[in-house]
Amino acid sequence: MSPLDTVLSGLMRRYTERVPDVQNIIDAMMAEGMIHSPNQIENDHIAFRTMGVPNLGLASFEKIFLAYGYEKRDPYNFAEKKLSAYWYAPPAHRAADNLPRIFASELRVHELSTMAQEIIHKYTDTVDKDPVDALDLADGAAVDQFLHQPLWATPTLAEYQTLLAESEYAAWVIYNRYYLNHFTISVHNLPDGYNTIDGFVQFLQARGFKLNSSGGVIKVSPDGGLRQASTVAQLVDAQFAGGEMHRIAGSYVEFAERRVLPQFAHLPTRQLTREHRREGFEAANADKIFESTFVAQTGL
Ligand code: OOG
Ligand code: NI
């Protein structure tokens, strides 16, 4: 396995262990006869969240995937949530493998209140040089280990709750760090009836999966080409400094339909590849999908 494949499979393994909905959805897809093996699922993209402070944030995180041949694409700004994001296209020479795109975001910590900034810096300031620079990126197992190791000490529950009141994203990252935030099931290549987001959402709801309703369950880009939905984040029992336990939001699962671009509408279905479909992301959709881990959706 290449280092990139080792890293991607490590991320998926730990994420599947932590988020029961992943296996439950795969099992439901098999029971429904949509797929015969989990390998048939195309992963549209994976997502990460980062803390925008010196030595961390996107500038540090992205080095890993840029080194593996991912290409940085469009920026997105979320003014109210104080977030910046980019998406990254998988290595061109691996086009045949349909590797996941990456959506990575960063909290603009300097825009938060002094109190929130102090809590964040109390922990992140212990990272006094960029930890990715010390990594051997050719060693996939070491990178997998890095992505799942605590980069800073665990805060107290009170600090977590102070952050939560001001920025749910800040609270999520201070505890969950680089854990995979979600993977995304591509629906457009599934059998008829399930190959639109509407059909797939109907199936999920009939099977009792709880979906993010912020801005409506189905988020549609203005051009109509990118249609997304997501589950509500599953809860994890988090242990805070001093041993205090509390249930907090962990990760979730997303679903995406990318429609064929108008200029390729004449192509027969079997000829369609990624390059014929709507690419990239959509800020207005993403703004609502972020809320899959927010209290208003999880009900915590
Ligand atoms: C990412 C939310 C945005 C998308 O596909 O637009 C997103 C997050 O929750 O960190 O996943
Ligand atoms: Ni997403």
UniProtKB/TrEMBL annotation:
Family label: Belongs to the 2-oxoadipate dioxygenase/decarboxylase family.
Organism in which the protein naturally occurs: Fibrella rubiginis
Keywords from the named record: Dioxygenase, Iron, Oxidoreductase
Name recorded for this polypeptide: 2-oxoadipate dioxygenase/decarboxylase
Cofactor(s), by name: Fe(2+)
UniProt-listed Pfam families: HGLS
EC number: 1.13.11.93
CDD domains per UniProt: VOC_like
Molecular function per GO: dioxygenase activity
